[in-house]
Amino acid sequence: MMNVQAYVTRQYRFCAAHRLHAKELSDDVNRKVFGKCNNPNGHGHNYTVLVTVRGTINPQTGDVTDRERLDHLVATKIVERFDHRHLNHDSAFQDVVTTGENLAKFIWDELVGGIAIGQLEKIGLIETRDNYFEYQGEPCR
Ligand SMILES: [Zn+2]
Questions:
Q1: Does 2 have pLDDT greater than 90?
Q2: Residues that place a CB less than 5 A from ion ligand 1
Q3: Contacts with 93 (C-beta within 8 Å, 6 or more apart), sequence order
Q4: How far is CA 31 from the centre of its chain?
Q5: How far, in Å, from the CA of 3 to the mean position of ligand 1?
Q6: How confident is the model at residue 3 (pLDDT cuts 50, 70, 90)?
Q7: How many Å lie between the centroid of ligand 1 and the Cα of residue 105?
C-alpha cells in the first residue's frame, strides 16, 4: 500500500460579528448591495470552518495528518483570533469586505503554510443555514 491518498475534514467553530461594507462605495450603494448586512451596528454569526487536508495514508497509523497538530494550528491561528470578536476590527479586514468568500480565503492563507503532515486541500465556511463558502488556493509546495 504505497502512496495512497485520502482526505480528512475537521470542523471548528467560532462566533463573530461583522458588517458587510465596502469603503470605496457610497453609503447608498453599500445599502443596495449588502441590504440588512450593511446595518451599521453589525450582526453576528456562528461560523463553522471545515478544514480539509489531503495526504498519504500512513501505513502504520492509517491516517493522513496529525489531527492534534491541526487542531492546535486552527485554534491558535483562527479560532482564538476571531471568536467573540468583530471581524471588521481585525487588521486583515481593514480594506477587505468581511464576506464569507474573503474569510474563507483568509483562513486558507493563514493555514496553508502550517500543515505539518499532508497538504491543505480546501476551506469550507458555513455562515448561515443557507450560506456556505469554499476556497481552494495554491498549495504551498
Ligand atoms: Zn453576516
A1: no
A2: 37
A3: 18, 87, 102, 106
A4: 25
A5: 42
A6: confident
A7: 16
**Contact predicate 104/40, CB 8 Å:** no
Q: Residue 38 in contact with residue 97, Cβ under 8 Å?
A: no
Domain residue limits, the chain: 5-135
Q: Does the 5-135 domain belong in CATH 3.40.720.10?
A: no
pLDDT exceeds 70 at position 9:
yes
How many CB atoms are closer than 10 A to CB 128? 10
Residues annotated as catalytic (active site), given as ranges: 37, 84, 127
Distance of alpha carbon 29 from alpha carbon 22, whole angstroms: 9
pLDDT in tens, 85-132: 999 999 999 999 999 999 999 999 999 999 999 999 999 999 999 999
Find the 123 Cα to ligand 1 centroid distance in Å.
18
Does the pLDDT of residue 70 top 70, yes or no?
yes
| Cα 127 to ligand 1 centroid, rounded to whole Å | 7
User: Distance, CA 44 to ligand 1 centroid (Å)?
Assistant: 6
pLDDT digits (tens, 9 = 90+) for 29-51: 999 999 999 999 999 999 999 99
Q: Of the candidates 43, 26, 29, which has an alpha carbon nearest to the alpha carbon of residue 98?
A: 43
